[in-house]
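Entry: GNAT family N-acetyltransferase
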Amino acid sequence: MIKSIKYSNLSPADADELQQCIHAAFGHVPFVQNHTWAQPDWTFIKYENGRVATFYNVVLRDVSIDGKKYKVAGVNNVITPEEFRGRGFASEILRATEQYLFNDLGCKYGLLLCADALLPFYTRLGWYKVHPTLYYDQPTGRQLYDSNVMLLSSEEQPFIKPESIDLNGLPW
């Protein structure tokens, strides 16, 4: 079963469980430790036998792409707890919720920031790598992101190869 939940409506127990998963997956990464991150707007969770088998978060934001604003689904923390890995659950949840992002949430694009090792995974799901200059905010000021940026286009939106993206806020 896959559920979409407003992040602010997560039960304290679910929020704590997801935070523990996030910390286990990314808590050791210096880039993650040294930055302030946006709070998600939505969480998508796949349950298996009543337990969280995989999940991801979405930050909804008007992002500037080559000077034009688009409502974007900022995808982050796609995590499958170790005991559920290798069963295709992350692919399943991303495919199953893709149209929700575009149709129900009204986003024009999906946007994620990811490590090199994850490029093939997201590419198989229809995401494509772009090479823009990408800016995001931090309490210390505006920052330049220097790693992988991927987009997912809705059926109504063309594939684009932006030169510049401004997240207009904290990264996700």
